[in-house]
Each structure stands twice: as C-alpha cells, then as structure tokens.
Amino acid sequence: MRVGLISAIAGSRRGERDRAGTIDEDEELVTRLRAGDEQAFVQLVSRHHAAMLRLASSFVSSPAVAEEVVQDTWLGVLRGIDGFAGRASFRTWLLRILVNRARSTGVREHRSVAIGDAGPVVDRSRFDASGAWMSPPQHWIEDSENRMQAQALAGQIQKTLSELPARQREVVVLRDVDGLTSHEVCEVLEISDANQRVLLHRGRSHLRQALEAEMNRA
Amino acid sequence: MSIFSRNDELVCQEVVELVTDYLEGTLSRSQRRRLEAHLAACEHCSEYLKQMRTTIRLTGRLQAEDLTPAMRDEFTAIYRRWRSEED
C-alpha cells in the first residue's frame, strides 16, 4: 500500500476532530453541488480525497489505478448525486461507491479471507502456563509524547499499517485515521459488525505490538 | 481458546483478546464486570489497555495530505467535462 499518502504530522489532531461538524459541512456542500456549484464539488473532493485514495489503494495494485478508481468514483457521484437520498451520510455513500468500483476494477484480487490472519494477538510465549503475563508490556506511553519519539512512532505506524492484511488495514484506517464509526465501516466494506470488530482488534493489536517493539529499540 | 466458557476469573491471555470488545462497548454486563475485576487487580493488563488506547490515539494523528493545486485543477476539469456532457 502507498503509505506515502499519509503524511504523519505529529501533534495534529485530525483523529479528534468534530465529526458532527464534518457531516454538516458535507451536507451543505452536497446541497450546493446539486445546485451546480463547481467549487462545492472541488471542496468535497478535497475533503475526502485522501481517505478515498487510501481505501482504493487497499484494493488495487498501483497508485495510478487507485487514482483512476477515485476519479471514476467522483464521476459516479456527479451522476448519482440527484438520486442520493441521504439515508446514509454522504461519506458512507461515497466510500461505498468507491469500494464497489475498486472491487469491480479487480486489478488485484481483493483477499476474500475475512480475518487475514489467525492465532492470538499477543504471542503465547509471553504468558505462563496459567495464562498470566510472564513477559509483561514494557512502559512506553510517557516516552511516546517526546517529540523525536513521536516521529519515529508515526513512521512505525505507517510501516505496520502497510504490512497489515488488507482487510485489517481498511478497517483500522477507516476507524482510527479517517474517524468513521463502526456502523459506517460495516456499511462501506459490507462486513458484519462482528467481523469489523475482529479485524479492528487484530489490526490495532499489531500496531500496539509494533509500537512496543519500536520503543524497546529506542 | 474459548473465552468465557468458564465462570472463573479471566486470565491475562484472555484479557488481551477482549480489549477491543471492551473499548467498543460490546461486552455483556457480566463480561465487562469480569474484565474490570481483572483490570483492577492486574497492573500489566491495565498497562496493556492503556497502550491500546495510546495506539489508537497515535494512529489518529496520521494526517492525510491535502489536495495539491494540480489535483484541484484535475477535478475541476472532471466536473466541467461532466457538466458539458449533461447539457
């Protein structure tokens, strides 16, 4: 995956932004777009482009094809905006179109295995026979706020995300980077709630593990 | 590993598998109570939970690149092309 699409900016708080505000602004832009406002279109693209590209990159093999899928999606939006009923949020609708286009592009087989990997999320060797910690988690949270450290950790997160099974990456990125709700993620990826949680759990656990390893190196 | 198949206390190895369900608020009341009882008594699992929260927070700091001016122009062109097809 093209993790270069995510530029890590330590200290920014995109993940903590006001989600309600985001949805309201989308609604306003959609209304303007329906009225034929070109600028509203460009603003909508701008707001959602990065998330779309990240998601598309999970399905197709090259950045160029991912770009094509995104463009194709926006054409679909322009053609379908008058029929968009607003039952789901605009973003959910948009990302669903994207996932459908990406899948039908079919440049790379999207792994159909729902989970991606199996087994415990923390290596068995870290527990004793009774299941208690033998090699407990080392403390690193305080150090992660250190500016230098924060950059290394951001790099580590990007690298680990790129190495996750595609389904885990999609769920973690949509939830934790793009800020979608679990319900939205299920709608967009057309997966069950239980599946969404398993994928999220495995993905986040991998990330925690990677951060711990990175902090131990430092 | 079957989780919650027994009624006795949770062990750490089970707790790490339940952390996401806990954070998502999808555990049953009794499951949540057992998990919280374990957390209250286990500093390692409490630390583990804190680290998962920190991981989520740090992941949320990754920021997407803004649209470049060239891309802006590209999408403006897409819009105009679509408009001309519509008319």
List keywords for this structure.
heterodimer; A: about 220 residues; mainly alpha; 9 helices; about 65% helix; disordered N terminus; B: about 90 residues; about 70% helix; elongated
Computed CA radius of gyration of chain A, to the nearest angstrom? 19 Å
**Structural class by sheet pairing and helices of chain A:** mainly alpha
**Outline of chain B:** elongated
Largest interface: A-B, 62 and 44 residues
What is the share of helical residues of chain A?
55-70%
Which word captures the global form of chain A? elongated
Topology, number of strands of chain A:
1
Gap from first CA to last CA of chain B: 62 Å
Q: What does the main sheet of chain A amount to?
A: none
Let me know the number of strands of chain B: 1
Number of helices of chain B: 4
Q: Compute the gyration radius of chain B: what is it? A: 24 Å
Question: What value does the average pLDDT of chain A take?
Answer: 84
Note the quaternary state here: heterodimer
Strand content of chain A: under 5%
Write the layout of secondary structure elements.
The complex is a heterodimer of chains A (218) and B (87).
Chain A: E1 6-8, H1 19-34, H2 38-59, H3 63-80, H4 90-105, H5 141-144, H6 147-163, H7 166-177, H8 182-189, H9 193-217
Chain B: H1 12-24, H2 29-41, H3 43-59, E1 62-64, H4 69-86
Helix pairs in contact in B: 1-3, 2-3
Short description:
With about 220 residues, chain A is an all-alpha fold. Chain A has helices spanning about 20-35, 40-60, 65-80, 90-105, 140-145, 145-165, 165-175, 180-190, 195-215; one strand spanning about 5-10. Chain B has about 90 residues and is mostly helical.
